[in-house]
Amino acid sequence: MRDLTAVIVNSLLAAGLYATMSYGLAVIYGVMRIINLAHAGILMLGAYATFTLYSRFGLDPFLSLAVVIPVFFGFGVLLYLAMVKRLPRSQAGPSIESLLLLFGVWLVLQNLAYAIWSGDTQSILTGYTMKSVVLFGVRVGVPSVAVFAVSAASLLALQVILQRTYLGRAIRAVTQNRDAAMISGVNADRISAVAFGIGTAFAGAAGTLLATMYAFTPDFGRSFLLKSFCIIVLAGMESVAGVAAGAFLLALLESVVGGYSSLPTSFQDALSFTLLVIALVAFPQGLLGAFGRVASRRRSIS
Amino acid sequence: MRPASRWVRVAAIEAAALVFLLAAPRFLERGTLNDIWNVAFAVILASAWNLLGGFAGQVSIGYSAFIGIGAYTTALLALKGVNPYATLPLAALFAATFSLVVGLPTFRLRGPYFTIATIGVSEAVRVVAAGVAFTGGSSGLRMPAGSFSFTRNYASMVILAVAVVALAAWVKESPFGYALAAIRQDIDAAEALGVNSTKYKLLVHALSAAIVAVAGSLFAINFQYISPGSVFDFRLSLSIVLMPIVGGLGTIAGPVLGALLFGYLQIKLLSSPGLRDSYLFIYGTMLIAVMLFEPKGLLGLFHRLRRGLARSLSRPVPDAG
Amino acid sequence: MISNCGSIILRVLLAAALAATVLPGALTAAEGIIKVGAVLPVTGKESKIGGAYKQATEFAVKEVNDAGGVTVGGKAMKIELTLLDDTSDAAKSAQLVEQLITQQKVDVVIGGYGSHLVQAQSVVPERYGVPYISGGAGARGIYGRSKWVFGTLSPVDVLSSTQMDFLASLVAAGKLKKGLKIALLLENTEHGKDYAQGVHDYLKAHPGDFSIAVEESFELNTPDFKPLLTRVAAAKADLFMADAHLEDFISMHRTFTQMGLYFQMVTYGARGADAAARKALGAATDYIFASGWWSDLLPYPQVKAFNAKWKAATGSDPQWYHATAYETVRVLVTALGKAASLKPEALRSALAAVDLKDSILPGAELKFSSSGQAIQPFVVTQNKPNNKVDIVWPVSSKTGDPVAPVPKS
User: Fold this and answer.
1) Backbone angles phi, psi at C382, to 5 degrees
2) What is the dihedral of CA A167, A168, A169, A175, to 10 degrees?
């Protein structure tokens, strides 16, 4: 029984991290159907920004979120206005051009990072980095718990914005049907800019959180990017709550397979990618989408 | 101009190019020949990808899997004593088969979903290749000594490159190519007209995969050492997609132009000490510039300039008064 | 018509591009210059140490040139170093080496850093008959295949068997009990495999001394080591031996500490004493022992001199990778000084026969074995509290006593 608790607790904590890395990607994809390859670069930049704030001004990483989030929001809006907006929109679908454009941005960000911070491995060591607490009888690291807390808060904040504010409703409208939303008076362009800003802000925040746990170089972010793809696919790519569920499922799978089976840990990654493909094929609307459809179908029949 | 004579023209140009390239070792330096080899390799990958991505409109970012299948098939069989060149058909067969296995479930998906699925598959293949013992695991494989002949490697790569471009030109004007174009433009309309889109997608995917695998085999023969990191890399998959798009998606000359630009430019940038540090920056900025200002790629840019020039030339001279 | 014009244009472009590169290259081997080429991962995955190798290589070459260069066959010559970045990509790495040989016409190539990159590069020297010396790869599989390939890093399996010797000495001294169980964790690379090989070879040669309770491999850049370490904890081993790169070491040891795991001795292969590790882990690195190709604590006068020179030039203490890169250039220059001429075979045989007697590497003597790889002894260091480090093995180079078992915190 204790084993099960340990698995669940560890999975929750890992899920918190995975989810935070993925919100940004999900928001941008949802509103603009753009696969943001620069996400990895923003993660990396967020980590380095936090590192600079910590080493220059002694600002605690979690406190620096207050700086990182608005700055990256602005950066995201700028990026959208300067580049993404100018891309020709081809029918309703996302273009491969946007994918490649953002890949180009990622490369430029990397070069920038090498130029400013060099290729040396950097890390952040605070007073609580190595400490642990006991949660439900399971010993867990303090940074993981803090990251989970921030992740949960982000999820809540996103849900509130999406469900309770005009901005959120507009975002959801544009996500579902851009043209219909525009007809209803939504300034789709402005919404897209805001969404890109939000997506970038979350990516930057994720970078901050990752910096509390890992060492990083300008090459940082690629493995997380691929994992985030798995998660937003599991989530249905348009649902924020789905991201949390997808992240948890993936983390749970990794925990169980990694901790309690004899499968070499090298194959864990193969597992997540296979899961990605299965999920795409069997549940194109994502897991929550699949349940949602079933539920609504049942409802409409009765 | 009737398609038949267009094909004849392309064939003539191709033949001339082939003669030139095969004669090149007589008067060009080894370093330049290496560069040609690189460009030829890039041309093959870009043109083959273009069959699926440009003609049929299905964007796959998982092509490094086929390069890897080709490379590993050749290396493993060569280590068992088989003549490397004899392994090429087998490599093509394995890749085509694998493409079917992957295509059957994923071609049900559309647009970006298909793209993401291909990323997933290619990464899974990489991880498995690195984890399994018989592929040499993460240490990779080294080709048996004495199997290296640059003249042979050069000739085979160049011949394959010319052949693939010719094949692409032929496919484009064939009924097969028209079906693919229909699928790219509007898959539902195509289906309504009786085009079995899944069959065509699978076919072109298999053809494309087979070609890429053979290129992978030639890669293994030339580099003599392969590892999962070098052949199954996600960034390699991205660069394969980059070239035809930057050059001009769905055209014949586009992938070649793109391959020329990126394949050649990359090595030149890296070997010039002054620009070396900004290599990522230049690469990335160029990509951004092309995507923003000329999504039809270099070929599109060229045509725009040509039209602009023609228009300005045919404009009547304004009166002096 | 459209594709026709495009085809024509591209043929013209192709011809023009080729014509541009056919321009006569620089005159080969101008009077008094030795052309040395180097291909290192200055950016990309291996950029941290690749960049350091670049720095040390340039430092070493500058030192030689400032002192008047090197005398080859009676003629004084300066070294012209062309150093290229392969962005940690193996195919590019091999091509750039080939480029240096065929276009820049270098006389000798200094190899890169990282076993997979050096592996890819090492097939090239044989094709052209150009001497190649690498200071950045310890994998045995690279050497012994071509007489043109040399390496200054000792094999990784000797690294781990040295650690086993050290552990055995602790048993002999009564600090550890006999028959302890080992948890062995390896990164899924050539490096990791060689490390495991060294441990296994030792156990085969000395049955009964130790046994392996659990052996697992992990992928580079694993994001979450919890599952792996949970398996390790369940195996209830006494000694912890892992082989990991810096990032994974940091990640793994953070999780290790947070989980509150305890082992009587802990090692991460060559990691542990580096400044970056201390910066990332703080006091959690105390008592970790590591086995390295070099330590700045080695009690040789030439090491002290090197430390001083390096500190004066760069403002920081040298790390092992600076030393090995530096020494690679130094042994090359020593061989050049003994070579009869700049002809490839003369350089090669000079390298094969070279014997650097005041080497800064452990053992104070650097020469190449019959496979082309140098087989040097390793030092074992142990971190002590308050950022202190001691060399604890071999006994002749000791600067402090080993602490075993590690105190419980």
Assistant:
1) -130, 135
2) 110
Which residues in chain A have their CB less than 8 angstroms from residue B234's CB? 222, 226
Sequence ranges of the domains in chain C: 33-154+300-367, 157-292+379-397
pLDDT category at C1 given cuts 50, 70, 90 is: very low
- Average pLDDT over chain C, rounded to whole? 88
Q: Mind telling me how many Å the CA of C57 is from chain A's nearest CA? A: 17
Residue C26 has pLDDT above 60, yes or no: no
User: How far apart are alpha carbons B286 and C12 in whole angstroms?
Assistant: 22
C33-154+300-367: CATH superfamily: Response regulator (3.40.50.2300)
For residue A74, the model assigns a pLDDT of: 96
State pTM to two decimals.
Answer: 0.83
Domain positions in chain B are 3-277
Say if strands C265-267 and C239-243 run parallel, antiparallel, or are unpaired: parallel
Q: Which CATH number fits domain B3-277: 3.30.750, 1.10.3470, 1.10.20, 1.10.287?
A: 1.10.3470
Res. B165: pLDDT tops 80: yes
Q: Give all domains of chain A, ordered by start, each with its CATH number.
A: 2-301 (1.10.3470)
Q: For C157-292+379-397, which CATH class?
A: alpha beta
CA separation, residue C371 to residues C59, C293, C375 (Å) = 28, 19, 10
Task: Please report the beta strands in C47-191, taking only residues with DSSP state E, as ranges in sequence order.
Answer: 70-72, 75-85, 108-110, 132-134, 149-151, 180-187
Q: Which residues of chain A does C277 touch, with a Cβ-Cβ cutoff of 8 Å?
A: none
Question: Are B13 and C190 an interchain contact pair (Cβ–Cβ within 8 Å)?
Answer: no
Nearest to B109 among A88, A103, A281 (CB): A281
Three-state DSSP at B214 gives helix
DSSP notation for B111-147:
HHHHHHHHHHHHHHHHHHHHH-GGGTGGG-EEPPTT-
Angle, CA of A161, A201 and C221, to the nearest 5°: 125
Q: What is the pLDDT of residues B16-42, one digit of tens each?
A: 888 888 888 888 887 788 888 989 999
Name the closest residue on chain A to residue C274, using Cα atoms: A121
* pLDDT of amino acid B72: 94
The verdict on B108 touching A (C-beta cutoff 8 Å) is yes
Q: Residue C25 pLDDT > 50, yes or no?
A: no
Tell me the chain B residues in contact with residue A33 when contact means C-beta distances shorter than 8 Å.
112
Q: What is the pLDDT of residues A140-176, one digit of tens each?
A: 889 889 999 998 898 888 888 888 888 888 888 887 7
CB burial of C158-190 (b: ≥16 within 10 Å; e: otherwise) equals bbbbbbbbbbbbbbeeebbeeebebbbbbbbbb
CB atoms within 10 A of CB C219: 21
DSSP secondary structure code for residue B316 in this structure: P
Is residue C405 reached through a cis peptide bond, with omega within 30 degrees of 0 on the bond before it? yes
The DSSP-derived string for B87-105 is GHHHHHHHHHHHHHHHHHH
Is the pLDDT reported for residue A301 higher than 50? no
Residue in A151, A168, A175, A290 with CA at minimum distance from that of residue A233: A290
Can you tell me the mean pLDDT for B229-252? 84
